[in-house]
Structures are given as structure tokens and as C-alpha cells.
Amino acid sequence: MEIELRRIEKHFGPVHANRDISVTFHEGRIVGILGENGAGKSTLMKILSGFQPADSGEILIDGRTIDYTGPTAAIANGIGMLQQDPLDVGAFTVLENFIYGGGDGITLQRKQAEAALRELTARFGFELDPYQPIDNLLIAERQQLEIIRLLALGVKTLILDEPTTGISAEQKLILFQALRRLAHDEGMIILLVSHKLEDVIDLCDEVMVLRAGLLIGDMQMPSADENLTSAVIADVKQALVTMMFGEELEAQSRGEIEMGSPVLEVEQLVVHDLRLDMQPISMTARAGEVIGLAGLGGSGQELFMRACARLQRVTGGALRFNGGNALSLSYRQLFHRGCIFGAAGRLEEGLIAGLTLTEHTALVADDNLRIDWKDMQKRTISRIDQYRVKGRATDQIEQLSGGNQQRVLMGLLPDNPKLLILEQPTRGLDVDSARWIWTQLLERCQQGTAIIFNSSDLEELVTYSDRIFVFYVGSVYEVPDANDTSIDELGFLIGGEFARA
Ligand SMILES: Nc1ncnc2c1ncn2[C@@H]1O[C@H](COP(=O)(O)OP(=O)(O)OP(=O)(O)O)[C@@H](O)[C@H]1O
Ligand SMILES: [Mg+2]
């Protein structure tokens, strides 16, 4: 199979999201699609997979022009896509989703479908229970389901939009293994949109870079047989960053911030969870301090952060906020005292699809007895400016690119909180935007805000944390000197090395 995009154009009102893009994808190749937030990556991939029409341009498959009427038509032509923010039906089971997700005219017999599901699952080393409701699945498992569903429908080109945000390192290995096999052994075309340069270098055969809607260029990636030393990887990374942003970014450092008195004191806290055996946790966060939480997804760090914000039940120990007993307070009461929780899920938890940016500002305003819309609009415009969001106050949140949604989420945080508990604050952001968000966060630390955050990006943890705690199946380990720890060392700890030592 060979796919050619010819002179693709797409506007959204004044935004020129794709400008005259022409590119050809060959079978057996894994191609990375890179570009800063809002560059037009998702737009181009949605056009190719039939989720939205181009204004003009052509799509040719094996030299034949195809007319798209929607994603079902794209799948019938062998092209399927995993969306950046997956929306599937929660109440259905894995098997039901597999059977009914086929679109028009595809009804498999239950028995037959279950056999097919189990066969595909086993083939790729995925672990999916056909009778689990989708609601209970991790992001990685939903992805796996979506991949095998598309494969069962005969897709020959698979598009993945930021598949590694929100999944663990282990799950990523499984996913990458499956993708390599599909491309290199079975001749499929794999298109991967990602901001994680390490992932792209690791997985892709070549990359194409978009900037402000234009195709800027492409580059071959070093093959796995070559000796991929960290120096080689650093060079390739720098070359990609230069292509994406047109300039070389300087390394950012944490800087000196003076620490004040304790803001949050956690003593032998036992977080309640049915699946994970959570060990008692002790930790103190001081004003101005940044505490990073490391660990594979689901190791207890998310539960711990939610417990600190009083969003998760606690069965023992003490929790003090600003010297007072926080266990006697509700989430809302803590919030009003300056303990702010920022959830990772963009469209699932933090933001509400269908509401405009201004309406989001109104939602978090303290004084919500009567809403002054003029004032809300003014505040929103100033935040858009401050957070360099590519979007307008009147846009609905889902019209923004993924990275710009994350900026809005950050922009909605109050100005001077005492404590920020942030789940993956730079998830889905490009390198430049991530640095920029941290500049904003560190400014708040200068003002005395304490930050507790988690991340699957080890470099981010090492760069910004004063102290790092590693979570591993419910146990916690404090890294003795966060300032001297290396990414490799942290990687070992995350795999449970401390638990075995
Ligand atoms: N449905 C829409 N309505 C209005 N504008 C849109 C819509 N979808 C995308 N845009 C705009 O088009 C531009 C490109 O968006 P796109 O989602 O393709 O970016 P992206 O490269 O995927 O970015 P990110 O890395 O942040 O996900 C952005 O400025 C975005 O705000
Ligand atoms: Mg996108």
C-alpha cells in the first residue's frame, strides 16, 4: 500500500491549519509526525482518516484518488486512526466494543468475535479481558483494544495520535513491539504523532516535521542496528528540535529558590485502595519546594496525590495543611484554603467539551453568584495572552489543539496557591511549551507556592524536582539526592530496584 497526500489545505475560520501539504507514505515504514503544539498534526491525520474533510487537495491510495465520506469509508480503504483523546462508550465490555465498533454492516457472531479478539490479543502480547467494562480499562488497554479492533477491520495503515501520553513505560514497550511487527513484518504503514523525541527516535524509521501548518521537512532516523549511544541520540534530538522550532533551545535549570515553612505534612498516611496495597507514606512539602513523584502509571502516585487533595479516602495517619488538620476538611474547603489539584485528563476531568474558554474562566471564578461576562471575557483574553494559547476566548475548548488545551488548563489555576498538586502538568506539550509551563510554575514557587507533581518523563522529574519520591506497587522510596540523580538511576528505581535491595 502507498498513500499520497496531494496539496492538502485546511482552514478553521482564520486559522490556516494545513497549508498545501504533499507527502507520500510507503509500506513497511513507521513515520513520526512532529511539530509544536497547534502545528496541524492532528488536523492532517484526521483528514487522512476521514474524521474531517480537507478544504481542498487529494488523497491517493496506490495511485487511485479516494473520496472520503467519513471514518468508516477510510477504514474500508484500509486507513484507521487512534484519536488523541479517545472517546468510547464506557458501559460496554471489551468484547461488545470489539463487535459493535465496526461501523456499518459489520456484525460478528459473539463466539467468533471472542475467538478473534483472543487471537489478536495474544498475538501482540496484549492483556485484555473480553468481559471487562471499558470503564475499568487503563488508557493503554483502551488503545490496545482500539488497535486490534482496527486490525480486525482490515486496516493496513494505522495512525496513532500521541499514544504514549498517559501510559506506563512497560505498556509502551508492548505497544512499540506490536507497531514494529505490524510495519516491519507485515508491511503496514504506521504514522505516529508524538512530542516525545526519545520515542520517535526509538521507534520511527523517518519523521516529517510540521510548523504552522506547513510541511517543513523530513529526516531519516538512525536504525536500531547502528550504535545508538546517548551522544548520537542527543544529536538527533537537537536536529529535530531545530526543525520544529527553528532555533536551538537552551537547557533550562531549576535555579535557587528559598524554602519556607511546611505547607503540607504527611505522616504515615494510608491511602485506601482496593487493588493496590498502599504502604504508609510520610513526606513534607515546604513553601517554594518542588516534589516530583516517579513511577509507572498505577503505582500509587496518582492515588497519593488525590488523597492529599482529599479526593481519595484515607484510612490512617495524619495530613496537615498549613499547620491544620486537613483530614477534617473536604476537597472544596481545602481548595478555598489554597490547595489546588490539577488533573491530567484534559477532556475527561479538567475541561468541559462544549464550553468556551470564557465559560471555563467563569466556572473557576470565586465569585460565582452573579457572572460578569464582560469581566470574564477580559480575564480570558489576558490569560490567552499570558499563556500564549493559540485560540480565542469564544472558541469551544475542543476546537483547540491538544497542547493548547493543556495551556488553558494551566491558565485556569489560581494565581497564588499555597500548594499545587499537578498530575502530569506537561502531558502532550511540545518541548518548548513544556519549558514555558515550567517557567510559569517556578515563578509561582518564587512566590512561595509548593508543588507536588508526577510525570512519566524522567528528564522532567530530574530537571525540576528538589526531591523525588519513587512509587512502586504501593511502596514509596525517597531518592536521597535528587540533584545528583541521573535519568538512568531513576529508571532503575522505577522498575522496583529499591524494593528488591
Ligand atoms: N475543530 C476546530 N475548530 C477550530 N480550530 C481548530 C479545530 N481543530 C483544530 N483547530 C486549530 O487548528 C490548529 C492546528 O490544530 P491541531 O489540532 O492540528 O494541532 P496539533 O499539531 O495536533 O497540536 P497539539 O500538539 O497541541 O495536539 C490549531 O490552531 C487549532 O486551534
Ligand atoms: Mg494534536
Q: Count the helices. How many?
A: 18
> What is the level 1 CATH name of the largest domain?
Alpha Beta
Query: Mean pLDDT, rounded to whole units?
Result: 87
* Number of DSSP-assigned strands: 20
- Percent range for helical residues? 25-40%
Query: Overall 3D geometry?
Result: globular
Give the termini distance in whole angstroms.
51 Å
Number of domains: 3
Task: List cofactors, ions and other ligands.
Answer: adenosine-5'-triphosphate, magnesium ion
CATH level-two architecture of the largest domain: 3-Layer(aba) Sandwich
Strand order of the largest sheet: 6-7-8-3-9-10
| SS strand fraction | 15-25%
Radius of gyration: 23 Å
Uncertain residue ranges: none
CATH fold type of the largest domain: Rossmann fold
At the fourth CATH level, what is the homologous superfamily of the largest domain? P-loop containing nucleotide triphosphate hydrolases
Class from helix and strand fractions:
alpha/beta
For the sheet with most strands, the description reads: 6 strands, mixed
Comma- or semicolon-separated keywords:
single chain, 501 residues, alpha/beta, Rossmann fold, 3 domains, 6-stranded mixed β-sheet, 18 helices, 24% strand, globular, binds adenosine-5'-triphosphate, binds magnesium ion
